[in-house]
Amino acid sequence: MRYFGSIVFVYCLWLLLIYQHTPSSYGKALILPPDRMLEEADVIFTGSIIRVENVPHRKNEAGPYLVKLIHVKVDRIVKGDLESDIAILKQTEGGLTVHQSYPDSKEEKLLILQRKLPDNTLSGVADSNNIGIIRVDRVTEVLNHSNDAYVSVFDQYYQAHKENAKKPPQTIDSSSTPISYSLVAIAGALILSRGIVKLRRGDFSRLMKWRA
Which residues are within 8 A (CB) of 110 and not within 5 positions of it... i.e. 6 or more apart? Predict the structure, then answer.
C-alpha cells in the first residue's frame, strides 16, 4: 500500500513539474488583470482594421502559428510611440492556449494594447484581452472576455488620456512614387522640347535676317 502511495505521489510531482515548465503554447495561457495590461503595454492606440492578410500555414508546424496579419489604420496614440500610422497585428491559432480574436467588421473603432518587440514589431500584451471596442467614444466591449472589470478599467483609462492622445506619423505611399517621378519626367521633357523648338525658330529667324 505504501509502495502504491509512493508511486502516486511521484507521478503527481512529475505532472506538477511538467506543468510549471511547459510553455504557454502548450496549455498555460497568459492572462493578466486589466490594470497590469495597461501597465505592461508599450503602446496603446486607437484605430480601425483596413486589411486582413492570410498567412499560409506550414505543414507540421507546432502551434501556436501565425495565420493572419491584421493591418490597422492608426487614429490616435494614447500611450507610447509608433513609427507609422499603419500598425500590423498578428493573429495566431493552434496549440492549447487562448488566442486573441479580432472583429469581423472593419467599421469598428478599436482600443489596442501591444508590446513592442526588439525588432520593432508588435505583439499582444497577453494571450487575450488586447482589443477593446469603442462605441460612441466609450470602450463598451473587450474581446475574448466577458468580465465587466476589463471594460470599466479600459474605458476609464481611455477617457483619462484621450484628450492628450497624439496623431501617428504619416506613412508615405511608396506606390505613388513611381507615378510622381513619371509625371515630373514627362513635364521636364515637354519643357525641354518646347525650349528646343523655340531655340530652333530663333536660329532660323536670325539666319533669314543675315541672308537678307
Answer: 46, 47, 48, 49, 72, 103, 131, 132, 133, 134
